[in-house]
Amino acid sequence: MGILENGKDNKPLSLKVLQFLLLFLGLGIALSILSMFMLRFSELKNVLPVVQSRINPCFEQQNSLENWIKPLSNLHHSMNDAELFWRASFVPQMKKLPFKRTPKIAFLFLTRGPLPLAPLWERFFKGNEELYSIYIHNLPSYKPDFPISSVFYGRQVPSQVAEWGKVSITDAERRLLANALLDISNEWFIILSESCIPLHNLSVIYRYISESKYSFVNVFDDPSPVGRGRYNWKMSPVVKITQWRKGSQWFEVNRKLAVDIVTDDIYYPKFKQFCKPACYVDEHYFPTMLHIQSPHLLTNTSLTWVDWHRGGAHPATFGKADVTDKFMKQLLEGQRRCVYSNQTTSYCLLFARKFSPSALDPLLKLSSKYLGF
What we know:
Layout: H1 13-47, H2 65-69, H3 81-88, E1 104-110, H4 118-125, E2 132-137, H5 167-181, E3 186-193, E4 197-198, H6 202-210, E5 252-254, H7 255-263, H8 268-274, H9 281-293, E6 304-305, H10 325-333, E7 338-340, E8 343-345, E9 351-352, H11 360-370
Parallel strand pairs: 1-2, 1-3, 6-9
Antiparallel strand pairs: 3-5, 4-9, 7-8
């Protein structure tokens, strides 16, 4: 039974059927083995850890321009003051920007804990999101409870204890400035307390500050015991008595002066070492340092009104009974005269303090009538 002539297979039909059956059986066994293997592989895949690739796609631009200019949505960071001030000191050398920028006012709230006048400020900020940013420095032990819809939600910077009359208050103000400098859009910086209120709407305040060539820092030479009398001769020759100045800690500075403040390693160490109660750093450091370095950029006046007529170490505080129509008229119409854009004007003050929590309700009732919001 071999191969016959003409190449034809001469095998019996039964043999051909047997070969076909063996081939079919072998194929079935192979498929069964393959099925078992796939099932086993599936079980192992669920047990073995999946190794993620650590290679970033080539199209992810980690150092894109957007990463440098985009404002931080989360203000929390782990930098200490030295690291923060160094990071905040970065200054572009080219004045022409390669992107569109709307300069903003950074409102810097220095507070122990809550902001009892927050509802008034919420009304003030509403609808002007592109013109401002907010930063809050409170005691580390205080846990804010602003709702997620609030403009103050998540605006607390990493803070440290700040005590009135001590250098830690100045540290807190420098810390606020440094955190705000991390946002390249912030051009002007205003220090405020929890007892401050705005005297005009945000559009008026923005125009007033943005169109000024100068920064509003209260600076004057006080020859009395609470002025020059606080000077420590050990600060000479870095700080001379003829350069010693006094002023309010509630000031407004532009970006250039804010950078000068956080990068100062000449005058600040002298104040930290030699200006201790009854020398109060917050009343003398900023006015003196800025007067020495950049007197041509200062108005020598403050934007914040306070009332010292009641006497004492602190200005008057106004509560619910004080905030009346008569009081608001006197506050807005009785302003001092000052120089703005080389012209004398009575339109000098943009903020006022000190207002207690009880003043909130009458302020809300009168704000649209007198404050413009």
